[in-house]
Amino acid sequence: MRTIEGKNVRLVVAAMAAGVCFLALPCIAQETPTAPAAAPQRTAPAPYSGNRPQSVKDGVQIQTAYREDMVAMEDAIPTKALVVPKQPRKVLVLCKAAGFVHSSIPLAAETVKAMGEKTGAYTATISYDSADITSANLAQYDAIFLDSTTLAFLDDPKDTVATEARKKALLDFVRGGKGLVGIHAAVDTYHTSDRASDAAPTGTWPEFNKMIGGYFKFHWVYPQVLTVKIDDAKSPLTSMFHGQEFQIHDETYTMVQDSFSRKNVHVLTSIDYAKMSDEDKAKEKYKRTDGDYALSWIRREGKGRVFVEVLGHSEHIYANTPMMEHVLAGLQYALGDLKADDSPVMK
Fold this sequence. Notes:
Blueprint: E1 2-3, H1 7-17, E2 56-57, E3 60-61, H2 67-76, E4 90-94, H3 105-119, E5 123-127, H4 135-138, E6 143-147, H5 160-175, E7 179-183, H6 206-212, E8 216-220, E9 225-230, E10 246-249, E11 252-255, E12 266-271, H7 278-282, E13 294-301, E14 304-309, H8 321-334
Parallel strand pairs: 1-10, 4-5, 4-6, 6-7, 7-14
Antiparallel strand pairs: 2-3, 8-11, 9-10, 9-12, 12-13, 13-14
């Protein structure tokens, strides 16, 4: 057993304990073609607990990460791609959240961009506007990265025609041979959200629900300790874990039972549920009868490729080198440069 945590988080915590103040400064420049001209900025850092306030101000998403998180991330991300890209690759990072707005969204976006620049695996454009999901605009990209998008992130409540066009553009993009990557709340999308009900959530866009691999039913809150099991130790997407399970702290989603099945996805990592305490198991609503709690997986969608990583709620995940190597591998798989067995495998 080992514990994988971001090395720089410990430095930040130690510095804060010593009275060092970190200022929240704007991040590196973003390529955001249709973002608001004056997006709200962070004015002061919140004490880091893994559960910062939502990344929104006056109803508008904040588009900058905390400086201390950026420093930790930049020191931890991979410096080399797993494989040399077959051709120049472009990734569109979509950060639009229509439900809960995670504080880690700006950091995750900058992480994806920085990994591409540092490794040469791709270049990335960051957008907070779902209007960028059009057939014409997507023609220039090789993959879309869904950065903790929540609920109906493509919908325009005032324009059903535009909504349907965006949905079609996304499906056609992936099925036509391109890539889709989703992290954390990418699976908290397109489902009913009445969590006060006794009924489990229901998917509202079946084609997307199947393509992404499942949708939200419950989460253990940060800093839940999880034992991560390596389900496919032979995959190049898990090579950085060396076949050894490890412990990590994060908030993680579990999937509605009927929405997720190994008949539909190739699981890379999962929660070792047998090692979870009875107390933690008792917190869960809508329990899965199969005890199957996948954390990352890949699958084919038409001619395209999908990679999902369910961890990523807390900012410290992005200062975790093996986890970011895992995400980079998933990106290179989705881009079509890293070959991997993506056939569904039952337990």
